[in-house]
Amino acid sequence: GGVGKTTLFQRIHNKFAEIAGKFDMVIWVVVSQGANISKLQQDIARKLHLCGNEWTTKNESDKAAQIHTVLKRKRFVLMLDDIWVKVDLEAIGVPEPTRENECKVAFTTRSKEVCVRMGDHKPMQVKCLKEDQAWELFKGKIGNNTLRREPLIVELARKVAEKCHGLPLAL
Question: What sequence ranges are listed for the domain NB-ARC (predicted)?
Answer without folding.
Answer: 1-146
